[in-house]
Specification:
Chain lengths: 82, 82
């Protein structure tokens, strides 16, 4: 399993919604309006990068797929409003 | 030095702009409308978490501060429109 963070700017609203649906389907959770995270296996990771490529339509679109160690993820700081 | 990714949802436009200015000042670069990344030293990392706390004003506000290894950062996949 690998821990991934997917961070994106997708200009088109419909494409952005479709991408988030795909990220949910792959098993990731939303951590911000345009960012998801979760643990996925290597096959799903390949699927993820292939799927993400399909949503890059304009020159303003960008998707970052970052993998990180589980300890780094567990040490993250989450600041939330009460 | 530590590599950080800062991902945020800040409801208030003015607060969100002020936060991004602070993140630029600390030496981070914007990787998405509401996400920054960069290498900072341990003192700046303490400043970062203290500064971020100031921008949490509403229950919908959230900031994730994730540290990761430089190799994980270098292995990230960036998909960009042409």
């Amino acid at each position: 399993m690998v821990r991934v963070i997917v961070i994106y700017d997708i200009t088109d609203d419909t494409q952005r919604t479709k991408l988030s649906n795909e990220l949910f389907k792959i098993g990731l959770s939303r951590i911000q309006k345009s960012a998801f995270s979760g643990d996925i296996d290597s096959q799903r990771f390949k699927d993820l990068t292939r799927i993400c490529q399909d949503f890059i339509k304009s020159s303003n679109d960008v998707i970052h797929v970052v993998t990180l160690g589980i300890r780094d993820w567990e040490r993250r700081i989450v600041l939330r409003g009460e």
